Amino acid sequence: MSEQQKLSDTKIAEFDAIYKNRKQPMCKNCNTSEHVIPCIRGKPSRELSIYATMNKDHVALCGCTQPYIAWCKKCENYIEDPED
């Protein structure tokens, strides 16, 4: 990873605090939230994009037109926002 694509430890800790231990919805396919990570909607900042690339187990990027709020890593299923 190039020097421009690295994040400071402070920035990683900031993103971890926001995304890593966030309570997630239950996956309807596997009936658990154990393997579910948050989806980030919209255009991510450069730093968030790098974080998502570095930490695929903590956050997924899903674009700005999709109604997804989470991703189940076990069954590879997007979870939609029930309010959308």
How would you describe this structure to a colleague?
With 84 residues, this protein is α+β, with helices and mostly antiparallel strands. The protein has one domain. The protein is built from 2 helices and 4 strands. Strands 2-1-3-4 form a 4-stranded mixed sheet, with no helix packed on it. The longest helix has 12 residues. 15% of the residues are buried. The mean pLDDT is 88.
List the helices and strands and how they pair.
Layout: H1 9-20, E1 36-41, H2 46-54, E2 60-63, E3 68-72, E4 77-80
Parallel strand pairs: 1-2
Antiparallel strand pairs: 1-3, 3-4
Instruction: Calculate the mean pLDDT score and round it.
Output: 88
- What letter string, H or E per element, gives the SSE order? HEHEEE
Radius of gyration: 13 Å
Write down the overall geometry: globular
Proportion in β-strands: 15-25%
- Could you tell me how far the N terminus lies from the C terminus, measured between alpha carbons in angstroms? 37 Å
SS-derived structural category = alpha+beta
Per DSSP E runs of 2 or more residues, the count of β-strands stands at: 4
Order of strands in the sheet with most strands: 2-1-3-4
* Major pleated sheet: 4 strands, mixed
Whole-number total of structural domains = 1
Task: Produce a short descriptive summary.
The chain has 84 residues and is of the alpha+beta class. It is built from two helices and four strands, in the order H-E-H-E-E-E.
Task: List the defining traits of the structure above.
84 residues, alpha+beta, four-stranded mixed beta sheet, 4 strands, 25% helix, 23% strand
